Structures are given as C-alpha cells and as structure tokens.
Amino acid sequence: MYTYWDGPISKLQTNMDDISKRYNKDVIVVEAAYGYGLENCDDTDNSFSAKEAQDGGYPGTVQGQADFIRDLMQSIINVPDNRGKGVFYWEPTWIAVPGAGWATPAGMKYIGESGKDGNARENQALFDCRGKVLPSLKSFN
C-alpha cells in the first residue's frame, strides 16, 4: 500500500472489507511504506520524493510516516469480523549501505542492467541514514 501510487487508505479499507466479506477470508497488507523525509543517503534516486509526499496524503516527515502507519494499522483493525490480520512493512531496515543495493553487480550484469547499484528506498525505512531508529517505529505498538 503506497498512498502516493495507490490512493488513500480509505480506498484500501473498502477493498479489504469487500474481499474479506465476499470470499470469507482474512486479509493482510503484504507491502506498505511511506517516506520519513526527502534526504537521499546515496547516489541513487529515491522512489519517494516531494511529488510522492504531495500525492500521498501525508507530509514526508517522521510524523507523516508515523501517521501513515497508524492509519494503515487502524484500517486493518477495522476490517469486519476481525478479518484484518496484519501488515508487512517494506522495507523497514533497508538503509543505504555501500554494496547493499537492490542487486549485486553479478545480478545487474545478468539482466543487462548498468548504472547505480544503490538504494531507492532508504528514506522509507524505519531507521534514518545513520541507522538510528525513528520514532515512527513505535506506531506499530
């Protein structure tokens, strides 16, 4: 669930409610994230920028990230009949570390990709660029 690509959490809520009722199934949000800032910690462009912060419905701040997580968790709790079971946050610990990009050099060569091997998602992690835990992590309590 990326509000800057998928629309508001209310749209997800409607979909989860429908799926759980129509198919009599539990639901889990299997991928979600939001940016805590616009800082870029490496030389790879981030997938969360000022445009995504504007489109996403939350500011691109630690508090905006925390509010997103809180609202997402509440939408899962609100699925009728206790059918909302959880969320997998993507990727909470993927901070910019040299050599720990999206692919290995061998993998990039194999798929014919060249260029930067950094991380386009470090500003959506739950740790800052130096590895310090962000207060937004507490939103999962």
Your description of this structure?
It is a single chain. The protein has 141 residues and is of the alpha+beta class. The chain has one domain (3-133). Helix content is 34%, strand content 9%. The chain contains five helices and two strands; from the N terminus they run H-H-E-H-H-E-H. The protein has helices at 3-6, 9-23, 50-56, 62-77, 105-110; strands at 27-32, 84-89. The chain has a two-stranded parallel sheet with strand order 1-2. Helix 2 runs parallel beside helix 4 (62-77). The chain is globular, with a radius of gyration of 17 Å. The model has no long low-confidence stretch (mean pLDDT 94). Belongs to the glycosyl hydrolase 53 family. GO terms for molecular function: arabinogalactan endo-1,4-beta-galactosidase activity; glucosidase activity. Keywords: Glycosidase, Hydrolase. It is an enzyme of class 3 (hydrolase).
List the helices and strands and how they pair.
Blueprint: H1 3-6, H2 9-23, E1 27-32, H3 50-56, H4 62-77, E2 84-89, H5 105-110
Parallel strand pairs: 1-2
Helix pairs in contact: 2-4
In short:
The chain is 34% helix and 9% strand. With 141 residues, the chain is α+β, with helices and mostly antiparallel strands.
